[in-house]
Specification:
Layout: H1 26-35, H2 45-60, H3 67-74, H4 82-85, H5 88-108, H6 113-126, H7 128-134, H8 145-163, H9 167-170, H10 174-193, H11 198-201, H12 206-217
Length: about 220
């Protein structure tokens, strides 16, 4: 039998495609030995594990995460996720770092402070699992370089938006104004995700409601 030289391919956005019968991957072979899982080759196993973890967090919360269960969902051996994250804390830290990176990117595109706040709320609504993990420090490895770098960048983007507001619109202390802006956006997003604003917001667009609230706090935004 000649050895196949085909390179396994991935689908759109890096999603894995099933390998053909002549090209079993090491991961799928291991999975078959350990539990008869359907054989898949993961072009990006790290991404597959993160995606599965986000699904679990959205449905059941971070406490429900298990690397063994995520490996089962991804169709790989139970030890495979540890090669990328070492442990559950490492996985949650990677998710938080990714979340801060996404948040920093969306804040970079903000037109002004009010728009930055709207984008913050939008991020929380579109990435609720990231949002939950990012602000639960006891779940994370706090000295992780990727995490601290991404967190600092997101904070810098928010401070930039606050600094662009004239003092007469935000007060003399830009640092306290930043705390106020963050508190408003984060508090609104948290209450929104926990359904505590279902009554006050009703059928209104939450982003429009937030724009109104931010106008009450920062007159010149």
């Amino acid at each position: 039998m000649t050895k196949s030289t085909r390179t396994p391919s991935t689908g759109p956005a890096g999603s894995p495609r099933p390998t053909g019968p002549s090209e079993p991957s090491a991961a799928s072979a291991s999975a078959n030995k350990s539990g008869g899982h359907r054989a898949y080759h993961h072009g990006d196993l790290r991404r597959a594990i993160v995606t599965a973890a986000l699904d679990v967090i959205s449905a059941e919360g971070p406490s429900a995460l298990s690397l063994r269960d995520l490996a089962r969902r991804a169709g790989v051996s139970h030890a495979a996720p540890a090669h990328h994250f070492k442990d559950r804390t490492g996985l949650l830290t990677a998710i938080a770092a990714e979340g801060y990176g996404l948040l920093a990117a969306t804040l970079t595109e903000a037109a002004d402070l009010k728009d930055a706040g709207v984008r913050y709320v939008r991020f929380a609504r579109e990435h609720p699992a990231h949002f939950q993990v990012m602000f639960t420090p006891e779940l994370l490895r706090g000295n992780d370089l990727e995490l601290t770098t991404a967190r600092a960048l997101a904070g810098e983007r928010l401070r930039d938006a606050v600094s662009a507001v004239p003092p007469e619109g935000r007060g003399a202390d830009a640092r306290l104004a930043g705390v106020a802006a963050w508190s408003l956006a984060h508090g609104f997003a948290t209450l929104l995700l926990s359904h505590n604003l279902d009554g006050p917001v009703g059928d209104q667009d939450p982003e429009d409601v937030f724009r109104t609230l931010s106008g009450m706090l920062f007159r010149a935004t």
